[in-house]
From TrEMBL:
Keywords assigned by UniProt, alphabetized: DNA-binding, Transcription, Transcription regulation
Coiled-coil ranges from the UniProt annotation: none
Entry-linked PANTHER family: HTH-TYPE TRANSCRIPTIONAL ACTIVATOR TTDR-RELATED (PTHR30537:SF5), HTH-TYPE TRANSCRIPTIONAL REGULATOR (PTHR30537)
Residues covered by the HTH lysR-type domain: 1-58
Family: Belongs to the LysR transcriptional regulatory family.
UniProt cross-references to PROSITE patterns, sorted A to Z: HTH_LYSR (PS50931)
Protein name from the UniProt record: LysR family transcriptional regulator
One GO MF term: DNA-binding transcription factor activity
InterPro entries: LysR-type_TF_proteobact-type, LysR_HTH_N, LysR_subst-bd, WH-like_DNA-bd_sf, WH_DNA-bd_sf
The UniProt record lists the keyword Isomerase: no
Stored Pfam families: HTH_1, LysR_substrate
Keyword Amino-acid biosynthesis included in the entry's annotation: no
Amino acid sequence: MNVTVLNLFVEVAQRGSFAAVAKERNIDPSSVSRGIAELEAELGVRLFQRTTRNVTLTEAGDRYLAGVEPLLYELARTHEAALETVGGTRGTLRITASATFGPRCIVPQLKEFCARYPDLRIEALFTDEVVDLFAERVDLAIRLAPAVEGNLVATKLMNTRYRVVASVGYLAAAPPLEVPADIARHRCVMFNLHAFRSRWLFRDSHGAIEEVSVDGDLVLSPAVSLHAAVLEGLGPALLPNWLVDGDIASGALVNVFPTYDVTATTFDTGAWLIYPSRTYLPQKVRVMIDFLKSRLNT
């Protein structure tokens, strides 16, 4: 069984195109077609349905992908483990994080990290889409959630707390914001997720929880766009501490209700470091986890 052909199969399944895979690999499309045809002949089943417009998996192909993809992932990690015994921390580290958390919290750490590990190449995908770690060959994901479900391995990087924030200029011109119920009289800037668009929860120092309805004319994503809108004085917004605490400290934004815990979903949430394999943690992943925890763990 040819590992190169198996990788071709997985890439074609992900992209739905022989031509796209050939272009990425800088090879002739006929080489991709020939490799897939040889694999189908070896298995005695058709793995793809081919039309003039696209390539889709057959039922057999879908089952084959489900079995082959994690095996190829583990094979690649085992190969890297062998190289680490003689070569130290090197290779390519693929990471993913949200479209706001990545640029805000991860990118500022990379200069020092790259100086420590000059033989390590970083490929980062910052998106609010949920990335398939196996399909995209991701080594480490940072996800924002109360908890991590499924078979992935996770360790908490940092806790997340939310603040209701507004600009000084907005507060000077708008109706008073003295208690949580006052939010109902304001047009808020809201995140484009259903749970964030109808009500916010406030918990006081005694543990009492108050639910306040919210509404507004600006529904935005990703979170960095809400942050920009609040800085422009377009209204109050519910944003995470890692995005706004610097602005609060500088005076650019005001933490409107500093004595309350605030959330749209749950009060206990955080950023999680997630990796696919329970059996082996590559050195390159381990050093990134340790580095990020030393810089961001709060």
